Task: structure prediction
Amino acid sequence: RLMNKLILVTRLSFIFLVININSQEIFLEYSQKIPGTNISVEMAAIPGGEFIMGSPNNEKNRLADEGPQRKVVVDSFWMAKHETTWNLFQLYMDREIDENQVRNTSNEINIDVDGVSSATTPYVEMSFGMGTDGYPAISMTQLSASKFCEWLSAMTGNYYRLPTEAEWEYACRAGSTGPYHFDEKSESLDEYAWYSNNSDGKYQKVGSKKPNGFGLFDMHGNVSEWTLDQYDAKSYSNQTDNVLYNPYNYATKLYPRVVKGGSFMNPDYRVRSATRFSSNKQWKKQDPQIPRSRWWHTDAQFLGFRIVRPFEAPSEEDKIKYWIN
Result:
């Protein structure tokens, strides 16, 4: 019996090709131009597959919430090669290019950009003197990051969102099974990551270290990254299925949510692929506003995000669900 779909995956200079015989769709890395600007987002093609999520019991410095390990299958998606920069996030905050919204009947998403809420201007300079041009945007809430994705989707016609925890770890590992996405026997963390030992106490320009096998930069360190999932220290142990397909722990409360990757502030063992962080309301401790901002975590100078785009666009209901989570 012939298979309905033939998937060819070729790795050449971090380029992946997937051909679907039924639809003739081509799955390649691409550059997302932001209408009305000279700014683009480089999107890497991440071919779907199976991996072991979490860390084994014998992994050095592992924490209990990283296991037990589980077998996970994720569908293909694109992921931004770099963490979202201030150059890009500022466009969302300023909203001066909204009139350049791309409208086309073939768009994955067709919503009025004017209807997307924008993050309020923070009361302090949110880079905290660490730099803005080419540096990762930081300190936004998960809501702020998700609304950015909704705005970008409206502007471009392509559907963007935050990654699930499973998608993030799968993309970070790039086929690896060890603590990091590279071979520790022949390479060092300093080649790939900004962390407490080499960061000088501040974030660095995105893409200034080596990428992983999928062509993604700064998956270890620099800034930690938002995912969509609700954080639960026992979520792995509560799973009973032998294989999980596109798992996603839908959030039903504001805190805590899952953050991955570790940052320039963390030691080496906290920027491992399996490391999990939980968001905390104390990240708004210094916010003098009453009520405190929905858009900013004034005490999370280590926190940023990157975007993904599913290879197969979800239903209209799911598109919205991922944005308002």
